[in-house]
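Worked problem 6 (solution included).
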Amino acid sequence: MTNRTHREVRLAARPRGPVADDLFEIVEVPVPEPAAGQVLVRTTHMGVAAVMRTLMDETSVVPMPPYEVGAPLHGAAVGEVVAAPGTDLHPGDLVEHRLGWREYALLDAADVHRLDPALLPDPAAHLSQGPTALMGIARGAEVRPGDTVFVTGAAGGVGSLAGQIARQYGATRVIGSTGSQQKADRLIAEFGYDAAVIRGAGPIEEQLRKAAPEGIDALFDNVGGEQLQAALAVANRGARLAIVGALSSQLSDDAPATTAIDTLALLARGITLRGVALFDHLDLIPEWNQRFAAGLRDGSLTFPHARLQGIEQAPRALRELTEGRHMGAVIVEL
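Solution. The predicted structure is:
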């Protein structure tokens, strides 16, 4: 029997700095009734990501609608169909949708995608940021056998997979950046990295030159700022630099961060600098799902993530993600 009420998380106010718990409101509301052609889903897992901090602002350059004050937030989620009158979906079907941050979601059938429950061993794995990681390695940085690859923000949901994928693409040396020695040790021990540079442990360029004495051939950049500048300084001729994220801007309390780029160095050394976003590469999602499934089965890939229990933990999950408290993806199990 479907519950009569459920909880949803609403944006209570626009942030003026870091994510804080008082920016959210948890409200109990009636469970909606699906009409013909609609699907009612009981959400079982939802993901949080750094871009959600950007969407909390009134405007942003991200090609996604910002959150509205007083309305529920939204984001990637997985759940089970409760009712779907007039559609080809059935109660119990496993589906993904974009209306996370609520225990029940009402969607048009076209906005729900049926998942194969046998494909991945854990439904939460459908919320990995692997498609972005694969895109950045394969199409952004165009990683090739023998490459030395630098991944910034390597301990996050994207970076912790990007290093593993770079290894699959034949990289012989993979270097990651992160914010603590503890995370650096785990990158090397668990996630396929050979070395790490640590934010705050000295100039990034000096650390990177020590970690990559022969230079880097490819960059997977989640951060920008000093780390992008260091990569450019250490890049070999013909290096491919992919801009996949911009954490230095997204998580800044001040005006958007800018990065000075030596355009003459790009020209003289034939370096490619390319911004890539997943909405231009959605065809990679099925490929990633198959690659991820095979990698999880044979042990060549892992799914680093933290899991918090209960929708009331969703604000904390986003806050802790932006504070760098976790390794890998951050999932809320409802």
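Discussion: The first helix runs from residue 51 to 55.
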